Amino acid sequence: MYKYFVGDTKGWVEVRKDELGAANLLDLISTCSYEKGEYVYLDEDIDLSFFVYFLGNLPIFQEIHVSDDYFSNYNRYRGGLQ
Questions:
Q1: Residue 33 lies in a domain
Q2: Which domain holds residue 71?
Q3: What is the total count of domains within the chain?
Q4: CB 50 within 8 Å of CB 26
């Protein structure tokens, strides 16, 4: 199960960096996604599709409702295993 942060107008899905690295997806993720610690928060409109394609099916999500500025203290994703 993945955490799906639902904002007022956008959404992000929390995925571990090492899981994205194992799928060779880290270099495909845009700066519309965020990162903090060992997690990347994939933008639902741009980056989540790469991950869902890798999985081969739509995962189960736990919805967490937040405001659109919830990730303002997180870093924009810059690529790779930093």
A1: yes
A2: 2-76
A3: 1
A4: no
| Entry pTM | 0.90
Mean pLDDT by 10 residues, the chain (82 residues): 95 96 93 95 94 92 94 86 46
- Asked if the structure places residue 81 within a domain, the reply is no
Residue 44 lies in a domain: yes
Asked whether the beta carbons of 56 and 62 are under 8 A apart, the reply is: no
Is the Cα torsion angle 48, 13, 65, 78 positive or negative in sign?
Answer: negative
pLDDT at residue 78, rounded to an integer:
87
DSSP 73: G
In sequence order, the β-bridge partners of residue 35 are 40, 75
Q: What's the gap between Cα 51 and its chain centre?
A: 9
> Integer distance in angstroms from the first to the last C-alpha of the chain?
25
